[in-house]
């Protein structure tokens, strides 16, 4: 008789036990029914006695099968209990694994959030670094532009100072005592020459008058003298000389007045430039003092720097102020008594 297969590991333990018990009961009932049908057939056939031994054998077989089914049922129950225990342990393991999985998932979620925060922080720092680099580049460009402007201003200042020194020297050359004395001498010689010519013309007129008076008498001397003199070449020459002298004097007066106005305007401009340059030189002297102090503080010891710092603020401004613009530009200023008299003091 074939053994009944036990329940599989995939089926639940209760279902496997009930299926085995039902299979054993159904098999026993089937054997009893087979025996009853066989008895009925034998009764109908009339040969019941000779088959008793067969029936007994069949009953024994049925009892052995029942006993064997009971043993299999016990084994199935034992297997079911073992499977039930294994299922319980697997359920506990499943619960523990689920808890571990949930913890791992929570940890993974936390790590992902932390990673995202780190990435966003790194991106923000990268953006901030790029902005800082751009600002540094812009500031460097502004510094270079400011240096270029300062250099251009310094060059313009030096050019203006050169022009001012040139104008100052030209003005000084014009107002030198030698030049003024030479012009005064030229004017005096011109005046003496004109006086001599005037005396010569007067002498000629007197001579002509005496001649006319001696010829026509004293009565018509005045009228004749006047008429002849007005129609004479000497009178025309005298009138021409007087007109020429008057024109020259007027032109000289106009040119002198115009030159005097130009000189006054130049003097005003030079005074304004002098005042402005004086202020700029004072500022430049202060900057030179500061730079000298910085250099001395860098090069000298603390004691020497303190000793020199006491003398520099009082000596350098006075030297820069007394030196004037020519000394600042590396030139030696010539003596200028005329310019000093007009207010160009160094």
From TrEMBL:
Where found in the cell?
Chromosome; Nucleus
> Which residue ranges are recorded for the region named Disordered?
1-31, 294-346
Q: Which Pfam families match?
A: SYCE1 (PF15233)
Q: Name one GO biological process term.
A: cell division
- Lineage top rank: taxon: Eukaryota
Question: Coiled-coil annotation: which residues?
Answer: 52-163, 246-287
InterPro entries in the cross-refs: SYCE1
Gene Ontology cellular component list: synaptonemal complex
Q: Which PANTHER family match?
A: SYNAPTONEMAL COMPLEX CENTRAL ELEMENT PROTEIN 1 (PTHR21731:SF0), SYNAPTONEMAL COMPLEX CENTRAL ELEMENT PROTEIN 1-LIKE (PTHR21731)
On assembly, the entry states:
Homodimer. Found in a complex with SYCP1 and SYCE2. Interacts with SYCP1, SYCE2 and SYCE3. Interacts with SIX6OS1.
> What protein name does the entry list?
Synaptonemal complex central element protein 1
- Which species expresses this protein natively? Phyllostomus discolor
């Amino acid at each position: 008789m074939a053994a009944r297969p036990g329940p599989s590991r995939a089926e639940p333990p209760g279902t496997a036990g009930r299926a085995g018990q039902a299979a054993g009961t159904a098999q026993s009932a089937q054997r009893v029914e087979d025996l009853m049908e066989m008895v009925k057939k034998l009764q109908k056939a009339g040969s019941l006695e000779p088959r008793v031994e067969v029936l007994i054998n069949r009953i024994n077989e049925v009892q052995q099968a029942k006993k064997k089914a009971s043993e299999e049922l016990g084994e199935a129950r034992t297997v079911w209990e073992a499977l039930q225990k294994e299922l319980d342990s697997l359920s506990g393991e499943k619960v523990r694994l689920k808890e571990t999985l949930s913890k791992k998932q929570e940890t993974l979620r936390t790590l992902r959030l932390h990673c995202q925060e780190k990435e966003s922080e790194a991106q923000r720092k990268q953006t901030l670094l790029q902005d800082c680099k751009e600002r540094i580049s812009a500031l460097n460009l502004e510094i270079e532009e400011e240096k270029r402007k300062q250099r251009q201003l310094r060059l313009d200042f030096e050019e203006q100072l050169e022009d001012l020194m040139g104008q100052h020297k030209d003005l000084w050359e014009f107002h030198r005592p030698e030049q003024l004395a030479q012009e005064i001498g030229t004017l005096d010689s011109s005046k003496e020459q004109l006086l001599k010519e005037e005396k010569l013309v007067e002498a000629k007129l007197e001579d002509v008058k005496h001649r006319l008076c001696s010829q026509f008498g004293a009565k018509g001397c005045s009228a004749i003298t006047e008429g002849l003199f007005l129609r004479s070449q000497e009178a025309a020459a005298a009138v021409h000389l007087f007109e020429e002298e008057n024109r020259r004097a007027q032109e000289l007066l106009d040119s002198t007045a115009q030159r005097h106005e130009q000189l006054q305007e130049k003097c005003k401009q030079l005074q304004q430039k002098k005042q402005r340059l004086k202020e700029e030189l004072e500022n430049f002297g202060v900057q030179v003092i500061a730079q000298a102090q910085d250099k001395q503080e860098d090069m000298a010891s603390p004691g020497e720097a303190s000793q020199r710092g006491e003398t520099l603020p009082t000596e350098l401004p006075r030297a820069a102020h007394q030196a004037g613009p020519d000394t600042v530009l590396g030139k030696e200023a010539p003596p200028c008594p005329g310019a000093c008299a007009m207010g160009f003091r160094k």
